[in-house]
C-alpha cells in the first residue's frame, strides 16, 4: 500500500486493495487518514473521489515522516483524535485502536478508545469470569477475555455479544440491509459504525448475483434424477429460498424441512442465527 507501506491484503479487515495508475492503496487507509482530502465530485474521480495528486502531496508534505507509535515506521496516516499518536491503519487494527466509519471518521489510539455507549458494558469488566463463559452469537465460539474494541454488544436489545471480526463479515455480506442479528433492529447500525465496523454502501451480497434466485420459481425439482412432475412436498433453502426440490429427492426428512440449507448458505456461519436449533 502506497500509504501505509504494508503488503497485507484482507478486504474485510482493511478494505479493498485498490490500484489506479500504478498507485496501490488500502481503502480503509484512505478513509481513516486525516491528511488526505476528498476533493473529487464523482466516484470515478481518482480513487473513490480521493484525487491521486492529493494522495501523493499528502504523503510528501504531511504524513510521510510521521512515525507509527506501534511499529515505529514512517508514513503513519492515522492520527488519534485525542492525542498526537500516529499509526498505520493495519497496526491500529491489530493493536486495539478504533476508527469510526461515519461522519468525520475519527480515530482513536488504544489509550483513548471511547467506552461503548451501553449500560452493561461498564459492569461486564467487573464480571470477568461471567463474560469469559459467553459465546459470540454469530460464530458460537467463546468470547473469552473482554476487550472494548474486539467485543461488541448487541446495544439495542442487549441479548448477546459478537466478535468484531464476525460482525465485519456479517456487515460485508448484508451491506446496507444490515440489522441487529438478534432482534433485527436497524438502529444497531449506528452503534457498530462507532465501534469500527465498516458497512458497504450496496445491497446484500447474495442479491448482487443476477441468477441467485433464478430457480426459486421453477416448477421442476433441481435433482437431476427426479422424474416427478408434481410440486407437492417441495421446499427451498430456509435462508434464501434457493435450490428448490422435493423432500425425498433432497434427502430431507419432513421434520427437518425448516432447517434445510442450500449449498451456498450452508458454509456461511451467520445463518446459524436464522436456522432454529434442535
TrEMBL record:
An annotated GO cellular component: nucleus
Keywords: Metal-binding, Zinc, Zinc-finger
A Pfam family reported for this protein in Swiss-Prot or TrEMBL: zf-HC5HC2H
Domain PHD-type: start-end pairs: 1-113
Protein name stated in the entry: Putative phd finger protein 7
Domain RING-type: start-end pairs: 136-183
Source organism of this protein record: Corethrella appendiculata
PANTHER family listed in its UniProt record: G2_M PHASE-SPECIFIC E3 UBIQUITIN-PROTEIN LIGASE, PHD FINGER PROTEIN
Amino acid at each position: 500500500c502506497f500509504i501505509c507501506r504494508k503488503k497485507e491484503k484482507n478486504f474485510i479487515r482493511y478494505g479493498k486493495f485498490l490500484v489506479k495508475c500504478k498507485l496501490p492503496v488500502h481503502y480503509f487507509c484512505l478513509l481513516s487518514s486525516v491528511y488526505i482530502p476528498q476533493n473529487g465530485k464523482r466516484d470515478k474521480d481518482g480513487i473513490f473521489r480521493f484525487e491521486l495528486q492529493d494522495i501523493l502531496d499528502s504523503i510528501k508534505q504531511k504524513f510521510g515522516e510521521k512515525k507509527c507509535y506501534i511499529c515505529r515506521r514512517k508514513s503513519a496516516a492515522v492520527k488519534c483524535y485525542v492525542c498526537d499518536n500516529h499509526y498505520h491503519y493495519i497496526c491500529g487494527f491489530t493493536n486495539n485502536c478504533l476508527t469510526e466509519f461515519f461522519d468525520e471518521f475519527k480515530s482513536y489510539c488504544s489509550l483513548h478508545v471511547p467506552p461503548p455507549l451501553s449500560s452493561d458494558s461498564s459492569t461486564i469488566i467487573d464480571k470477568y469470569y461471567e463474560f469469559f463463559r459467553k459465546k459470540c452469537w454469530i460464530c458460537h465460539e467463546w468470547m473469552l477475555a473482554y476487550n472494548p474494541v474486539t467485543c461488541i454488544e448487541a446495544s439495542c436489545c442487549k441479548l448477546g455479544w459478537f466478535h468484531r471480526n464476525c460482525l465485519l463479515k456479517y456487515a460485508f455480506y448484508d451491506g446496507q440491509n444490515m440489522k441487529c442479528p438478534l432482534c433485527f433492529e436497524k438502529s444497531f447500525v449506528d452503534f457498530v459504525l462507532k465501534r469500527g465496523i465498516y458497512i458497504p454502501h450496496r445491497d446484500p451480497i447474495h442479491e448482487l448475483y443476477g441468477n441467485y434466485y433464478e430457480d426459486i420459481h421453477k416448477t421442476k425439482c433441481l435433482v437431476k434424477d427426479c422424474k416427478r412432475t408434481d410440486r407437492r412436498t417441495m421446499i427451498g433453502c430456509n435462508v434464501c429460498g434457493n435450490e428448490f426440490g422435493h423432500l425425498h429427492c433432497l434427502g430431507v426428512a419432513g421434520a427437518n424441512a425448516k432447517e434445510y440449507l442450500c449449498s451456498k448458505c450452508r458454509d456461511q456461519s451467520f445463518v446459524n442465527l436464522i436456522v432454529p436449533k434442535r
